[in-house]
Design brief:
Elements: E1 32-37, E2 40-47, E3 52-56, H1 70-73, E4 78-82, H2 100-114, E5 120-124, H3 126-135, E6 142-146, H4 157-170, H5 174-182, H6 185-193, H7 201-211, H8 214-226, H9 230-234, E7 243-248, H10 256-265, E8 269-274, H11 281-284, H12 286-299
Parallel strand pairs: 3-4, 3-5, 5-6, 6-7, 7-8
Antiparallel strand pairs: 1-2, 2-4
Helix pairs in contact: 2-3, 4-8, 5-8, 6-7
């Protein structure tokens, strides 16, 4: 059944109209479903068999960002990818729950609600921070961060950027205005290139679709406004799960030095670098990224299902 029945969920919305608005060419649309787990209506893609891998995208992304990596994981694993609250096709149920702590709690509750027991979590950018927070509460065998966003803004930016995001997220019509102004092929192309990555035309079109969704822009701004890493960074030396941090040497959004610094603190951390790729390297160089992920999973007991 492609979409979950919501009639008995007693949540503050009726059937989600956006469930019908996932583009027909959206990657793995046939695996999409909507799951009501308080306080959000989650868009989830669940496919494959074997040990469960949970995939968490970064700020401003969605399940589509895993389109090139998922086929390389599916032969051996069950893959579950979700959209963060309000982003992509997940419906935001509570605007106060877009920060790191709240999202980690709500994802853990979703896993419990569905009976998911992830063996490992793969997170990109801010999704890697969420993965490490979840590793503190879930019995994971491994955590993998791709260009992990594990640093605070320095100096004045440390309070100015979140304050600006909060102001913008609370200002009427800002998401609609941003979607209209930035929702052009040229603007989206330039934004993606500014991360140091070059992705295919289909991927750019999917980002364009997201930018043209005011609800997605609004949720991304709200996440930025509520984002704080202080507590998590202070506990990195207490992480117990083996952690692989993969960096792209050309990342212009999160410098590789961020992962190097984190790897020095996390007890069971390994660091790997892919030269020539940027912040979205799991989209532009999925084969190289998978060649690092798969051996790491096997090394730490996330045994792949034998292929037929």
């Amino acid at each position: 059944m492609p979409y979950a029945c919501l009639s008995c969920c007693n949540l503050p919305w009726g059937p989600d109209v956006r469930a019908l608005n996932i583009p027909r060419n959206w990657p793995f649309r046939d695996a999409s479903c909507h799951i009501a787990s308080r306080p959000h209506l989650w868009h989830v893609q669940d496919m494959g068999e074997g040990p469960t891998l949970l995939l968490i995208h970064g700020a401003g992304g969605a399940t589509h960002s895993w389109r090139n990596l998922i086929p390389l994981l599916l032969p051996c694993y069950r893959v579950i990818a979700l959209d963060l609250p309000g982003q992509g096709f997940t419906v935001l149920g509570n605007r106060s729950r877009c920060g790191l702590e709240a999202m980690a709690q709500d994802i853990a509750a979703l896993c419990a609600h569905e009976g998911w027991q992830p063996a490992a979590i793969i997170g990109h950018s801010a999704g890697a921070a969420i993965a490490l927070r979840l590793a503190e509460t879930l019995p994971l065998q491994a955590v993998i961060g791709i260009n992990a966003a594990l640093s605070k803004f320095d100096g004045m930016a440390g309070w100015l950027f979140p304050a600006m995001a909060k102001l913008l997220s609370m200002t009427p019509f800002i998401p609609q205005i941003f979607s209209k102004l930035a929702g052009t092929p040229t603007q989206v192309h330039d934004l993606l290139v500014s991360t140091g990555s070059h992705i295919e035309a289909a991927g750019e079109a999917q980002y364009l679709h997201l930018v043209r969704m005011p609800s997605h822009v609004d949720a991304t701004l709200t996440m930025m406004a509520q984002w704080t890493l202080d507590a998590l960074l202070g506990r990195l030396d207490r992480q117990t799960a083996p952690c692989l941090l993969i960096t792209g040497a050309g990342d212009r959004a999160v410098p590789p030095a961020v992962s190097r610094k984190a790897a020095e603190v996390i007890p069971k951390a390994q660091l790997a670098n892919c030269s020539g790729f940027g912040h979205l390297m799991h989209e532009e160089a999925a084969t190289q990224v998978a060649s690092l992920i798969l051996p790491f999973l096997a090394q730490h007991g996330v045994a792949p299902q034998s292929r037929a």
